[in-house]
Amino acid sequence: MEFMVCIKQVPDSMTIDINPETGSLIRESAGAKINPYDLSAIEAALQVREKTGGNIHALTMGPKQARFAIREALALEIDNGWIVTDKSFAGSDVLATAYTLSQAILNITEPDIIFCGKQSTDGDTAQVGPEIAELLGIPHASYVTEINHVDKDYIIVTCNMGTYKEVLRLSTPCLVCIEMEAYTPRISSLRNKISSQNKAINELSIGNLKDKDKDNYGYKGSPTKVRKIYVPKVKRESKIIDGDVDKIIDELIEKLNEWGCLNE
Fold first, then answer.
1. pTM of the full structure
2. Are 42 and 182 in contact (CB under 8 A)?
3. Between 128-136 and 94-108, two packed helices, what is the crossing angle to 10 degrees?
4. What are phi and psi of 159, to 5 degrees?
């Protein structure tokens, strides 16, 4: 069987800098890592391959430095690594990202199952996976916590819908979005890390895709636009009031009145 795992490189920090003029993230201000949800998707794909045999491709979209995420996936014994990168893809929203990845998948193989993390830690939209499936015209399931059965014709999965669990049967080809807690990612061995350095990473650009119209990608192909990203400025003031209880209460009431907290 053929499997595809879509992964994303995200900032390896909860705090990154923002360009005050453009409002864009300065990703170089933090390290980078594979999105934790995608590591669970990789583990799910590896466990399925152990049962069925087959070939796993890892695919990412991003700048050249996103190759490090693919290299990390190869160290986990993914068979083939792919990066789709082009200046035309800059500024992509979730739909343009999903469209680019779906076009890349059509160029690479016809996967029986596409694995995605439920969401990314930097975007948190949980939209890219389902949108890839819709663009490819295949069934999909989100919030997947367990893959119960796999064969060439269909899979059975369990989905955590919050207040209840749902068991779905999906005909192949299909796409599943894996919950982060569902599969504990394995740790790559030193031997695999070393051997992964010698594995080729395949690169695709817009010229390799079936649709070569630049207006369908990146900022131009994104129906949503980010007007501004900023860090809220929190201003807090503290004051210690000394004295007896009556004086403290009087001063506190005076301050609350000054701030308008006691107005009817």
1. 0.81
2. no
3. 50
4. -120, 135
Cα distance between residue 215 and residue 19, in whole Å: 26
- Alpha-carbon span 160 to 84, nearest angstrom: 32
Among 46, 54, 2, residue whose Cα is nearest residue 183: 46
Spatial distance between the Cα atoms of 76 and 43, rounded to a whole number of angstroms: 9
Please give the backbone phi and psi of residue 190, each rounded to the nearest 5 degrees, phi first: -60, -40
d(CA 233, CA 33): 28
Tell me the sheet residues that pair with 147.
Answer: 157
Give Cα separations from 103 to 76, 132, 179, 189, 246 (angstroms). Answer: 25, 9, 25, 33, 73
Give the C-alpha separation, 119 to 129, whole Å: 8
Rounded CA gap, 114 and 27, in Å?
Answer: 28
pLDDT tens for each residue of 40-85: 999 999 999 999 999 999 999 998 889 999 999 999 999 999 999 9
**How many Cβ atoms from other residues are within 10 Å of residue 139's Cβ?**
17
The predicted-structure confidence for 9-35, as pLDDT tens digits, reads as follows: 988 765 566 666 655 566 555 567 899
| Domains of the chain with CATH codes | 2-216 (3.40.50.620), 234-264 (no CATH)
Supply the pLDDT for residue 237. 74
Query: Distance (Å, rounded) from C-alpha 30 to C-alpha 161?
Result: 34
Q: What is the mean pLDDT of the chain?
A: 89
Counting every residue, how long is the chain?
Answer: 264
CA distance 128 to 106: 16
